[in-house]
Design goal:
The complex is a heterodimer. Chain A is mainly α. Chain A has helices at residues 10-28, 34-56, 64-88, 99-107, 112-127. In chain A, helix 1 (10-28) runs antiparallel to helix 2 and helix 4 packs antiparallel against helix 5. Chain B starts with a helix and ends with a helix.
Chain lengths: 128, 206
């Protein structure tokens, strides 16, 4: 039952994961567009996740059944993202509670405490 | 003696294409696939909320990434000590199992301590579940919901690891019987894997 496969070189996987993490931190500060940085970061993260699943979780050495089980959430999450696409590209929205508070928060973030009091007053007015 | 043999025979999994090495492993993978969907749904929801928001703050300006980069490194280290624990018991080394499980638990507890420190710091800076001085309050909601959900998984993992450690100290596992250690390992690596994704989506993508 045990030792059906040769043990992978865990320290090499660890070293690779550490290096990929360092590269991720470097990528964040690359002088390029946010989109390119985001694509690079997601690629690196998926690579690291695959390393953990394949070697630490032994997926590489298991029967296909477990691989299919592991792939299921990936497929379902892809479908979920497609289902959410209309929301991703929909009308931009601000998500602050009160319009007055919202304007204050966006224009003068440093003057927050005083504006927050105003915001509460506005909220009280609206409720009346 | 024959009773023991009969009991161990009853515990042996039946052979079928669906059967991996053990039913426990199959069960753990099915659970982890479901759990992955929970995290997938949270992160997809986060993406949808963030993409539609015009006042979303840059996470790099609100959250510190040097601390969380260290936390990421810590979880990767604790994954390595976990595989070392399993490797030790596969060779019948119970002292190795104990030591590496203790190190894994230490990694998990330190991670939780650092997360508590980070949360305290953020809450004192005014960011809570329902408010955020740096922009959209949903930034705070999604941040605490997702890192909190992951933190609960780490907490559960530390408890699970402690139970396996106690079982190990009582001599439950051996070179022939180490399934329980393998299962807790799968769970722990999954928690590490999810953190890699959470770290990228919540902290790094600016």
């Amino acid at each position: 039952m045990s030792a059906s496969h040769k043990e992978p070189n865990y320290m090499a996987v660890f070293f690779l994961l550490a290096v990929l993490t360092a590269i991720e931190i470097g990528v964040v500060y690359l002088p390029t567009t946010k989109m390119i940085i985001a694509i690079l970061l997601v690629g690196l993260a998926l690579g690291k996740a695959a390393l953990v699943a394949m070697y630490f979780m032994h997926l590489k050495f298991e029967k296909r059944t477990l691989g299919i089980i592991a792939l299921t959430p990936l497929i379902l999450c892809t479908l979920l993202i497609i289902a959410l696409l209309p929301d991703l590209t929909g009308a931009p929205h601000k998500t602050t509670t009160i319009p007055a508070e919202q304007a204050a928060a966006v224009e003068q973030p440093e003057a927050m405490p005083a504006d927050a009091v105003d915001g509460e007053a506005a909220e009280a007015t609206i409720q009346q | 003696m024959s009773q023991v043999a009969a009991a161990s025979h009853a515990a042996e999994p039946a052979e079928s294409p669906l059967t991996p090495e053990s039913w426990g492993k199959l069960g753990m993978w099915v659970f982890l696939a479901g759990d992955a969907m929970s995290f997938g749904a949270l992160l997809a929801g986060y993406g949808a909320i963030r993409a539609g928001s015009v006042d979303w703050p840059n996470p790099l300006h609100v959250l510190g990434i040097s601390l969380t980069a260290f936390m990421t490194f810590l979880l990767i280290c604790s994954s390595v000590t976990m595989v070392k624990a399993l490797s030790a018991i596969k060779h019948g080394n119970r002292a190795g199992l104990r030591n590496f499980l203790l190190l894994t638990i230490l990694g998990g507890v330190t991670f939780l301590g650092l997360q508590a420190y980070e949360w305290t710091h953020l809450i004192h800076s005014g960011m809570t579940f329902t408010s955020n001085p740096h922009g959209s309050y949903l930034f705070g909601t999604t941040f605490f919901a997702i890192t909190g959900f992951h933190g609960m998984h780490v907490t559960g993992g530390v408890i699970y690891l402690s139970i396996v450690l106690v079982n190990g100290l009582r001599g439950k596992y051996s070179a022939e019987n180490h399934n329980g250690v393998e299962l807790v390992g799968l769970y722990w690596h999954f928690v590490d894997l999810v953190w890699i994704l959470v770290f990228t989506f919540i902290y790094l993508i600016g």
